[in-house]
UniProtKB/TrEMBL annotation:
Pfam families: Ribosomal_L30. One of its GO terms (molecular function) is structural constituent of ribosome. Keywords: Ribonucleoprotein, Ribosomal protein. PROSITE patterns: RIBOSOMAL_L30. This is Large ribosomal subunit protein uL30. It comes from Tenacibaculum piscium. The keyword Ribosomal protein applies.
Amino acid sequence: MSKIKVTQVKSKIGRLKSQKATLEALGLRKLNQTVEHNATAPILGMVKTVSHLVSVEEIK
């Protein structure tokens, strides 16, 4: 199973409650914070929901 590194690059101020909740669920609480996750379907769905706020890289 591959892993991904997710970094928050834009602020959650002024965003929808659901987008804020998705960032929290991913473990992102601060700007420029990075977390690692397994690339499972639920995680990739959450990343897609907030794709305009985060950057994603695959870890080899």
